[in-house]
Amino acid sequence: MSKADKIKARAPRGFADRNPADLAATERMLAAIRESYELYGFEGVETPFVEYTDSLGKFLPDQDRPNEGVFSFQDDDEQWLSLRYDLTAPLARYVAENFDALPKPYRSYRVGWVFRNEKPGPGRFRQFMQFDADTVGAASVAADAEICMMAADTMEKLGLKRGDYVIKVNNRKVLDGVMEAIGLGGEDKADQRLTVLRALDKYDRLGESGVRALLGKERVDESGDITPGANLTAGQINRLIWFVTLRSKPIGLSESSINRVNPTLRLAPDDGSEAYELDMLSAMDNAYGSSPIFKEGVNELRQIAELAAAAGYDDGRILIDPSVVRGLEYYTGPVYEAELTFQVQDEDGRPVRFGSVGGGGRYDGLVGRFRSEPVPATGFSIGVSRLLSALQMIKSPIVSGAEKPGPVVVLVMDKDQVAAYQRMVSTLRQAGIRAELYLGSSGMKAQMKYADRRQSPCVVIQGSNERERGEVEIKDLIEGAKAAGAIASNEEWKAARPAQFSVPETDLVKAVRDVLARHFG
RNA sequence: GCAGCCGUAGCUCAGUUGGUUAGAGCACCAGAUUGUGGAUCUGGGGGUCCCCCGUUCGAGCCGGGGCGGCUGUACCA
Length: 521
Known about the structure:
The chain is of the alpha+beta class. 39% of the residues lie in helices and 18% in strands. The chain has helices at 20-39, 53-56, 88-97, 141-157, 172-184, 190-201, 203-215, 234-244, 255-261, 280-288, 292-310, 384-393, 418-430, 444-453, 464-469, 477-484, 490-496, 508-520; strands spanning 43-44, 50-52, 72-74, 80-83, 106-115, 127-136, 165-171, 218-220, 226-228, 318-320, 334-340, 344-345, 351-352, 356-362, 377-383, 408-410, 435-437, 458-461, 471-476, 500-504. A hairpin with a 5-residue loop joins strand 8 and strand 9. The protein is elongated. The relative contact order is 0.11. The chain binds one RNA strand through helix 14, helix 16 and helix 17.
C-alpha cells in the first residue's frame, strides 16, 4: 500500500476502546451491581441492541428535534430500525410483548451498551453502558421508595462511602403544580413550561444567578453565546427559585436535628413572612397545596420519605431536592438521581463535574403505549461508563488493582528446541498456571523486554547448558526489578543475574508456584 | 446546533521579518553484550507541517474556504 493510501487509525469520536484495566474494573462493578439488584429480588433479562424505531418512540412534549440523537437505519423491508438509546424503552416493549406470561409486579434488571448520537465530552460517550432495574405493574410509591434504597445500597457496594454520594428525589407532579400555580398551566404554555424545566434542571451547574437568567430574558455564557430564556416576570422567577432552593433535611430526622442540618428553611415569600418551617414538605404544602396535582406529588414524596425513614435510610443517603428534573419525555411522578458529592481534578488540574451517575423515575405511560390499558412502572439506571471514569479518577479500590498478573513466559533460547519449550508451557498450564511460549523471532534481550511488558511474574530459561544438566533457570522479574536499583553498571547487572535460580526440570511447576506464592500469596 | 480557542513525529512541544533536505525531549527498534527486562552510550525507523484554493520567485508561517480537536453553551429519552 502506498503512503498516500495509508488509513489513519482512529476510533470514531465518542467511542472508546477499553483496555485490560478497564475490562477488569467493569467486571467488578457489574458483579457488585448485580449482587445488589438480585438481593432486592430483581431477575435478569436481556433485549437486543436494535429495536424498531417506533417502539423506542417519541413521546410527550419534547419533539422539537425529532430523531436527533438516535442512530437509525432502514431495514431491507424499509422499516426503520434504531440502536437503543437506553434500556427502559426496550424493556417496555419486552414487557408489553410478553405481558401475559410475566408475573406482575414484574421486577427485572439488565446491563448493556446503549447508543446516543450526540456531542461527546469528558465522561460522556456515544456508546456507554447502563445497568438498569425496573418494577413494572406496581402503582404504589413503595416501589419508588424501594428503588431509591436499592440505589443507595448499590453505591455503597461499589465502594462509595456514605456521604460521597446522595440519592436525590423529586416529583414531576410538584413541579407541574408550581408552574400551574404561577400561571404557566394550559396547553398554550407547554413550550414555556419546557423551557422552565430545562432551566431548573441546570441549578446545580449554573447556580441561582444562571437559572434566574434563563427564567428571565436570556443568559450569556463565558464565550459570549446567548441562550434565550423563558421570559417570566420577576415574581414568577422568585417563586420558582424559592421552590427549587428548598433543601431537604435528611428524611425523617427529629426537629432538633433539623435545626442543626438546615436552620434556614424559608417559608413561601409571597405572604411576606420571615417565618421558618422545619419540615420542607409542610413548607411546600403551605405554599402550593391548593393545587391538586401539587398536593398529590407532595403526598407521594412524603410517603417515600416515611418508607425510607422506616427502613433506616434517613441519615442523608436519600434527600428530597426540588431542583431535580431529569429527562423531559416520559417521567410521570417521582424522579431520582444518584450524584457524587466529592470534587476531583483532571490531569490538567481542572475540577471535573461528573453530574449524575444514575437516575430514574416513574414512567406510567411507557408500557401503556403498546396496550389498551395503562401500566404503571418505575425504574433506575446506573451509568456504568461514567461511574467507571469517576471511580478511576479517585483511584477507588474496586477499579484499581483489578488487573491480573501477566503469564509466565517460556523463552526460546534455541529455535530447534521449540517442542521442548512448548512441553514446559503445557506442563505449567496443566498445573493451572497462566503461561505462554514466546512466539516472536527476536533474541533473548527482546524476549526479556517482552516478558517485562507483559507484567510476567517470572520467565523460564533453558539454553544448552541447562538442558545438558536437565535443569531450567527461573528468573523472578518482580524481585529482579527491585534489585535493579542497587546495581549501577551494566556488566554488574548482567553478571549478578539477580533473582535467578536453577532447578531440575522436573521441579518446574513447584519452582514457579513458589515465585507466584511469594508475590501473590 | 451556537460561541470562543487551537491543529507541526505515537506523546509533549520548538521552528526568527516568508528562504536550502522541518527539529528537540519522551516513547519505539537495534547495537555496544554470539544468553538476561533496569541504567548509560551509539545508531535507526517514523512527518501530506489537518485538507483544498489563493497570494508569492518561494508558504509550516500570509489570506479565504473546509475538516478535525478542546472548552463553554444547547440537547440529553
